[in-house]
Amino acid sequence: MKRSGILNAALAGQLARLGHTDRVLVCDSGMPIPAGVEVVDLAFVAGVPSFAEVLDGLLAELVVEGAVAASEVGEANPACAGLLGERLPGLEYVSHEELKRLSREVKLAVRTGEARPYANVILHCGVYFDT
């Protein structure tokens, strides 16, 4: 058994398959996930695991070269907006409808137990070079 990092076997396997330019949707429990997208559902009960916990775990494992969130997050969920702004400099904002459209193109969706609105972000995978 792994001692640290992501312990969920399904999530660890899916992350290992990601490549440069792949996209990952990290979403709250209410975000519609398009048919055909691989899903790792981590939701246990409302709020567990939180969006912040899952995002931080993913950011520790992935190289991220860009991200997109809904512009409505600032007004509807200021705490999440602050978290996204802090963790993802250069975050791009689009309408929630556009974010849902973009989610049809992700390779993986990771569903959290978050029960607050607009706790959703699409991460654009980068590539790691050992220098």
Description:
By secondary structure, this protein is an alpha/beta fold. It is built from five helices and six strands. The protein has a six-stranded mixed beta sheet. The termini are far apart. 27% of the residues are buried.
Condensed summary:
This protein has 131 residues and is α/β, with parallel strands linked by helices. Helix content is 31%, strand content 21%. It has helices spanning 9-17, 51-61, 73-76, 78-87, 96-102; strands at 23-27, 38-41, 64-70, 92-94, 108-111, 121-125.
Keywords:
single chain; 6 strands; alpha/beta; 131 residues; 6-stranded mixed beta sheet
Taken as a percent bin, the fraction of beta residues is 15-25%
Distance between the termini: 30 Å
Run of helices and strands: HEEHEHHEHEE
> What can be said about the biggest beta sheet?
6 strands, mixed
* Count of alpha and pi helical runs: 5
Number of strand segments: 6
Uncertain spans, ≥5 residues at pLDDT below 50?
none
Oligomerization state:
single chain
Helix content: 25-40%
SSE class: alpha/beta
* Mean model confidence by pLDDT: 94
Shape estimate:
globular
Give the arrangement of secondary structure elements.
Layout (H helix, E strand, L loop, with lengths): L8 H9 L5 E5 L10 E4 L9 H11 L2 E7 L2 H4 L1 H10 L4 E3 L1 H7 L5 E4 L9 E5 L6
Parallel strand pairs: 1-5, 2-5, 3-4
Antiparallel strand pairs: 1-6, 3-6
